[in-house]
Specification:
Elements: H1 6-19, E1 29-30, E2 34-50, E3 53-70, E4 77-84, E5 94-99, E6 109-120, E7 123-130, E8 149-156, E9 167-174
Antiparallel strand pairs: 1-2, 2-3, 3-4, 3-5, 4-6, 6-7, 7-8, 8-9
Length: 175
Amino acid sequence: MQKRPLYTCLAGLFGAAFMMGQTNDPEPLSNRWFELDHASVGTRIAVSNSSGTPTGWALQHQEIFEGAFLFDAGGKFSLRAAVADGDSMTGGWSNTGAGTNAPASYGFYVKKLYFSAKPFQGLEIQYGGLDVQRGASSTITSYAGDAYLDGARVLLTRPSLFLFDTVSVTKAYFG
């Protein structure tokens, strides 16, 4: 069995305890014009390894905020956005400055920005910088939560008409 440094185990236990009180799909905070879908703040300890031996560590942070501007009272037409730290698709965590050879980095970047139209119940059309559609998978078996696509998507959510709950077609550029 591989030995892990104590601080990595403690960070994992803290993260697991924090996540236990969360639900999968909470209701968004909203008013007539704005909707906040997701807000999260996290920290982790990243350990550098060389042949199974820890060679360095960095205390890292991550902030993600997702929401929408609603063009109409029913929310049928909206401009949806997500901002997060990390200046690339694979760089969703930033250094706090604590650790060995880990200069501090801070900054918010637009990760998703797209127009969404729901002209009638069961049909949604999206265009712009989109989420990765995961279906029944999670971030362990699919792309991370900060992954994005540039393109268009049509979603049909009509379980009474189809064998599936949702059918989606996406034409996009990855990355």
